[in-house]
Design brief:
four-stranded antiparallel sheet; 10 strands; ATP-binding; six-stranded mixed sheet; single chain; Rossmann fold; AAA+_ATPase; binds adenosine-5'-triphosphate; nucleotide-binding
Length: about 210
């Protein structure tokens, strides 16, 4: 239930950005390859050196420890990182037996086309699209209050893309989460967002 506010956030390739996303609002961000979209999300998540400050409601990022900030402002990177052998090891209560009693987790898995036995799968066998969908579920299990999504549907076919869009929509509504979504897809912007920005010459420009 908090807005996400960027105050003069800048990095090596970008002029400082001021942007406020209301609680429950979804804002799109696009721009040419290499224009600095991912670096901007990483700066907001405090993963790279940068200037400026970010706020979640009235709480500043610098007032919170980095792990707490990153749990509350969840980043879905374009390429997810997996550190354990099996999918379920990356999720709280992520073994198939416990997950049965976790209605939300099993619902999310079903919504994205997985049975509970996916939790026993080895990460090494996951396709790119499976990784992407499971990384989203992993992120949501941490109950983030705001989302930073880096091309969340880039590797998906239209049916899976629609399912992911729906899940993010439902989560945004139920958690009243502010969402900043990097996407190259103008049709996706038309479907989902009321406000969109593009990075041009290192600056954030509002799109009509
Ligand atoms: N660690 C780094 N050191 C130096 N340059 C970097 C580093 N990370 C990214 N860059 C450069 O910064 C620029 C912006 O990168 P970024 O990943 O933000 O682009 P992007 O807009 O997300 O592009 P794409 O749409 O292709 O994903 C690129 O030119 C990239 O090569």
């Amino acid at each position: 239930m908090a807005s996400l506010r960027l105050e003069a956030i800048g990095h090596l390739f970008m002029k400082p950005v001021d942007l406020e996303i209301d609680a429950g609002e979804l804002v799109f961000l696009s721009g040419p390859s290499g224009s600095g979209k991912s670096l901007l999300l990483r700066a907001v998540a405090d993963l790279d050196p940068h200037q400026g400050e970010a706020w979640l409601g009235s709480e500043s990022r610098s007032g919170l420890s980095p792990p707490v900030w990153r749990r509350r402002v969840g980043l879905l990177p374009a390429e997810s990182f997996w550190w354990a052998e099996r999918v379920g090891e990356h999720l709280p209560g992520g073994d198939a037996e416990t997950a049965k009693s976790k209605e939300r987790l099993s619902d999310w898995l079903a919504q994205l086309g997985f049975d509970l036995d996916v939790l026993d799968w080895e990460v090494a066998r996951l396709s790119t699209g499976e990784r992407q969908r499971l990384a989203l579920i992993r992120l949501l299990t941490q109950n983030p209050e705001a989302l930073l999504l880096d091309e969340a549907t880039a590797n998906l076919d239209p049916a899976n893309r629609d399912q992911v869009e729906r899940l993010i929509h439902d989560y945004r509504r139920s958690a009243t989460a502010a969402v900043l979504w990097v996407s190259h897809d103008p049709a996706q912007r038309q479907r989902l967002a009321t406000r969109a920005y593009v990075i041009q010459d290192g600056a954030l420009v509002s799109e009509p």
